[in-house]
Hints:
TIM Barrel, Immunoglobulin-like, Glyco_hydro_b, Alpha-galactosidase, globular, 2 domains, six-stranded antiparallel β-sheet, disordered C terminus, alpha/beta, disordered N terminus, eight-stranded parallel β-sheet, binds alpha-D-galactopyranose, 16 strands
Amino acid sequence: xxxxxxxxxxxxxxxxxxxxxxxxxxxxxxxxxxxxxxxxxxxxxxxxxxxxxxxxxxxxxxxxxxxxxxxxxxxxxxxxxxxxxxxxxxxxxxxxxxxxxxxxxxxxxxxxxxxxxxxxxxxxxxxxxxxxxxxxxxxxxxxxxxxxxxxxxxxxxxxxxxxxxxxxxxxxxxxxxxxxxxxxxxxxxxxxxxxxxxxxxxxxxxxxxxxxxxxxxxxxxxxxxxxxxxxxxxxxxxxxxxxxxxxxxxxxxxxxxxxxxxxxxxxxxxxxxxxxxxxxxxxxxxxxxxxxxxxxxxxxxxxxxxxxxxxxxxxxxxxxxxxxxxxxxxxxxxxxxxxxxxxxxxxxxxxxxxxxxxxxxxxxxxxxxxxxxxxxxxxxxxxxxxxxxxxxxxxxxxxxxxxxxxxxxxxxxx
Length: 414
Ligand code: GLA
């Protein structure tokens, strides 16, 4: 349910975010590639050497990221998810990469990724085991901090929360904050708010002080129903989660699944547009070595990425649901506004939406310049508060606009 009416939206959006984890990272939402949704826990390198979780996979992704314009578009982190370690710690109790699949070890992989001008992300779990049953870090926080991740020159840690001991939550926050002492800044991508929700509302102030981004809701799947469920959850919890987002710390609605099998092109555009509005980390999980040109173009669309990375750093929100449309709006720097109109009616053809019905349209007073970014780039010219402009939106597709006031609106500005 889109509970936020425009006034509430204003209140939420003008509230400054709480203090962020002070490691100087994620001043804009993180961009990169993460293996999980597409490659999952495929460890069978004998049968499937091209797609198994091995150093080769990350090296190939790093190569493609440089060669095929991903790095240039801003995608920077190459991230390992679950299933990379050996089932046994080494003699000193340290986590170690599976020797068969990572013969060079993580340090060498990090060096390789760094030599390409990219960064390496790794995965661990704050509990006894990872979600897929590999060794967890419970009881080893300090050791992991000193040795494994810092010594290997890893740049990001996705810290999952399966099998977590809730009594240790505070200790966990202390541990993460103290990582600065190693002298190496690691970007923290945390997952425990997701596991906390069924018991209690997470303390977002503490989370923001501990993590650079955090998951709140279930894993994304390669399907439109999964994307819809993430949007619904976000809209119905936005008054709680949106104020906590800002430079240094972001809500993470999970990976982009664009370029895989389950979404139509309109649905891929919806995911990209809404992830930009939500100031979400853009962590792509697909096979960059084999992706259709249209999906690649969408993921590398500089206008959408600019909305996602806007320096104002405010997360947008759902401002109205009406007539099987959802309007999501995000305030941008220079008093601009991004408006995404999602057509949730999954029957029939394209439907028209009177753009002046978007609550944020108020900023178009006395005049504004409108640019359509999706589905096609189009200058829509100078408009007024009473415009009759109607945008066309495909079923389960999104029309994305930016609105630039031509002079200051006298009233409240998002
Ligand atoms: C959980 C996380 C996923 C992924 C898997 C790995 O389900 O939410 O993103 O990391 O664990 O096992």
